[in-house]
Amino acid sequence: MEATGIPAVDTVLVWGGALSVLTAVVTVLWRISRGALHLGGRVAEFMDDWSGEEERPGVPGRPGVMERVSGIEARLSRVEHELYPNSGGSLRDAVDLANHRLARLCPDESESPPPPNTPPPAATS
Questions:
Q1: Quick one: DSSP state of residue 102?
Q2: Predicted TM-score (pTM) of this structure
Q3: What is the DSSP string of 51-101?
């Protein structure tokens, strides 16, 4: 930078430039810290959701992700129990019995009718 020859103007230009650089640095640091604080808050919210929260006065507790997954697995095991034949209490047993009764009531013309009073066929899994 070339000097203007007027000491007062030169001093104002130097201090103005320094103030501009300082303002830019402070602005960049402020934006970075603001972004980091926002990100930190989001991470804290995620961790609260992941691990769950204890019940406190006026606010019900929330289960964490692992507790929710174990609940889903328990419900799926109850559903899976209904998909395979067992002692006659599963949905699969009820469908097999209904199919057997329907086959006795409405036999296919290409097949011979099953003999009366025969037990339902054993289902394979």
A1: H
A2: 0.46
A3: H-B--BTTB--B--HHHHHHHHHHHHHHHHHTTS--SS-SHHHHHHHHHHH
* pLDDT value of residue 120: 63
Q: How many residues does the chain have?
A: 125
DSSP, collapsed to helix, strand or coil, labels residue 56 as strand
Burial of residue 123, with CB atoms counted within 10 A of its CB: 0-12 exposed, 13-18 middle, 19 or more buried: middle
Tell me whether residue 90 is exposed, middle or buried, using C-beta atoms within 10 angstroms of its C-beta: 0 to 12, 13 to 18, 19 or more.
middle
pLDDT band at 112 (very low <50, low <70, confident <90, very high): low
Tokens for 40, please give them: 């930190």
Gap between the Cα atoms of 65 and 8, Å rounded: 67
- The span from the CA of 83 to the CA of 89, in Å, is 11
